[in-house]
Amino acid sequence: MAVRGRVCLVGAGPGDPELITARGLRRLREADVVLYDALVHPDQLDVVKPGCELVFVGKRAGRVGERQAEINRRLVLAARDGKMIVRLKGGDPYLFGRGSEEAELLASEGIPFEVVPGVPSPLAATAYAGLSLTHRELASSVAYVTATESVEKDRTGHDWSKLATATQTLVIFMGMRKLDSLMQLLIENGRPADTPAAVVQWASLPKQRTVVGTLENIHELASKAGLGLPALTIVGEVVRLRESLRWFDSKPMFGKRALVTRAAHQAGSLAALLRDEGAQPIVAPTIRVVAPSDPDALREAVTRTGHYDWLLFTSSNTVDAVFDALRSGGLDTRALGGVKVCAIGAKTGASLLSHGVRADLVPEDSRAEGVAAALRPLLGTDARILLPRAEVAREILPESLRDAGAEVDVVAAYRNLPPETEQAERIRSLVDPDEIDLVLFTSSSTVLHLAEILGDDAVDRLNELDLFSIGPVTSRTAERLGLRVTATSQAQTIESLVEAARAYYARGADADA
Asked: Which residues pair with 144 in a beta bridge?
């Protein structure tokens, strides 16, 4: 009987969630079942389709994990059930993993399979630590070696008399528990004791740590620094390149733990910007965007956009809400054909463009005052304006437009609510200097809701951290609560917000404190 399902052995890459291949992501999006390892970044699992079954089968040395037999059983049963299965493995499936063994099993069972290679951890560890596996003047050969389970096996599992000096660069996997004995083996078999060596832990992630020494002292240095698993050891002259090739762990925000308070559906873009700066984003949405109390009001308003001269979009959330309302009413973009459109903020304009609508006006100043000033000269006599927005918002914009002689209809497009109880408890536990270094506020709502979550000690707890605000309105909200805002972004964009934080740390804020 032919097997209807198939299995894809996919390399997740070394840690950074963006280092997975495009093909690997495509297979994840197609999967019915994903069996994933301990070193897989959780963000990679966010792309799976609704209903996809996620199964953790992590195996770490010294920790309880699924036995390989059980993993094999799951793969076979799911494939025979006609499902598309992704076996997601850290690094590359075939490099010191058990991907080839799993492929052999699938072949023996007559189950179709595919292998999607991943970025191997040695490539990431050296690139992100400022090393290089090869160099025209220093090394033209590389060997990858896996350490084995005991010192006795170290001495019999490999021919160290040849391996110690066979290549100019040597990369040792899974050797942290016996680093001292491994380095002694290399010295005993001909490598000079002063050969440079480095240990890289958590390669490509903001928590990456690198220790550099020699064969003689790397064990002592790595132990003193508290390095553990997962880690790679690199031996060879290429280690000397680190000081000139460092780029990742020398960034001003490297290793900073940043609380991202933005709504969950918008947090990913901000988290990606933080990772670009070497920071570790901790997504903790303090707001939920939900339908307004009276969704019928928006649906009714969008059916009569021809009644208005201008339609103002205040945010990407408003764009989503309006087009959802159009669709639910059996309408499409053509319903906006007779009205001029104003997008508040470049990101709102881009969101509109994704729906095929180009804004007639995108004010340079995204604050209510700036928007009103940009619109006034364009308003005709008795101009009629539709303003969908958050259910609770400042009244400055509609009042300013009414003062200019316009008729303004305000309709609630969505509500910003605090997180559910379980999520609020998680956020409360995170707001601690032992857990995070900074907080990014992307709106007044994120400030107010976080303060509400923390309760009476909100000011004391938050003022122990660096607080960054997306604009002056958000900063004023924070300051009214008694919070000390570390820096305010020049523009009301997440790019500007991250730049404000980067610039602050680049000035050596830690040294000045």
From this structure: 171
Catalytic residue (one of 84, 89, 174, 437): 174
**Annotation marks residue 59 as catalytic:** yes
pLDDT in tens, 400-444: 999 889 999 999 999 989 999 999 999 999 999 999 999 999 999
**Lookup result for tokens 């609510």:** 417
The pLDDT mean for the chain works out to 92
Note if 162 is an active site residue. Answer: no
Backbone phi and psi for residue 214, each to the nearest 5 degrees, phi listed first: -130, 170
* CA–CA dist 413, 410 (Å, integer): 9
Q: What gap in Å lies between CA 124 and CA 130, rounded to an integer?
A: 10
131 burial class (0-12, 13-18, 19+ CB within 10 angstroms)?
buried
Cα–Cα distance measured from residue 452 to residue 436, given in angstroms and rounded to the nearest whole number: 19
**Burial zone of 457 (CB within 10 Å; 0-12 exposed, 13-18 middle, 19+ buried):** exposed
* Mean pLDDT confidence for 273-280: 96
Q: Indicate the helix (H) or strand (E) that contains 499.
A: helix 494-506
Helix (H) or strand (E) run with residue 125 in it: helix 121-129
- Condensed to tens digits (0 to 9), the pLDDT of residues 432-448 reads 999 999 999 999 999 99
> 32, 43, 59, 409: which is the annotated catalytic residue?
59
Q: Which of 16, 37, 92, 154 is catalytic?
A: 37
Give 150's pLDDT tier (boundaries 50, 70, 90). Answer: very low
Whether 253 is catalytic? no
